[in-house]
Design a protein that fits this description.
With 76 residues, the protein is an alpha+beta fold. The protein contains 2 helices and 3 strands. Strands 1-2-3 form a 3-stranded antiparallel β-sheet, with no helix packed on it.
């Protein structure tokens, strides 16, 4: 007894199954993902770009924000 399974090159004969998968293009494309940048790299790249193109430094912006908060609190 011989039977053919739909969609594959396979045969069932004498309680034995032979299976040969086939692909339409003859190759299999594998995709993989991996992280390019972690949080530290993103922060340093952003800070570097702001410092280079806008003349800002994270320390300077933070210091000015702290001074502004202190001045606001002293007024009230």
């Amino acid at each position: 007894m011989s039977a053919s399974l739909l969609g594959t090159n396979s045969r069932v004969t004498n309680n034995t199954i032979a299976f040969w998968p086939y692909y339409s293009f003859g190759s299999v494309k594998l995709n993989s993902e991996y992280m390019l940048m972690d949080l530290g790299a993103i922060v340093s790249a952003t800070g570097g770009s702001l410092g280079l193109f806008l003349g800002l430094s994270c320390y300077g912006v933070a210091w000015e924000a702290i001074l502004s908060i202190v001045k606001f609190l002293r007024k009230t």
